[in-house]
Amino acid sequence: MARDRGLEALLREDLAAACGLTEKPMFGGWAWLLRGHLLVGARDDGMLVRLGKDRDEWALAQADIAPMISRGRRMSGWVRAGPNAFGDDAVRRKLIDMALIFVRSLPAR
Questions:
Q1: Within its chain, how far is the Cα of 92 from the centroid?
Q2: Is residue 83 part of a domain?
Q3: Residue 1 has pLDDT above 80, yes or no
Q4: Does residue 47 belong to any structural domain of this protein?
Q5: Number of structural domains, the chain?
Q6: E strands within 6-45?
Q7: Is residue 84 part of a domain?
Q8: How far is Cα 55 from Cα 67, in angstroms, rounded to an integer?
Q9: Residues 5-22, mean pLDDT to the nearest whole number
Q10: pLDDT for 109
């Protein structure tokens, strides 16, 4: 899987004000972690977003957002946003904001 440097730049800009983030290569792309918990990722197949179990219904109702599938299994609480979704500033920002709310509710690692 190849990295999507354009998506990485968008996420880096959107996350600039968030404190406590780290970045690292993961899953064939680039990932952002908050206090040790995976928050969002950028890959050539889209933006991965951690919304939390039973918190993704609103996102899945949006165009070009689907459940995250890994090794043939649906990852509960995770979505993959395609270019039409992450390219929309308002949709991308809401996904990030909801991911930040969820991950901030988790205990630090």
A1: 9
A2: yes
A3: no
A4: yes
A5: 1
A6: 21-26, 29-34, 37-43
A7: yes
A8: 12
A9: 96
A10: 85
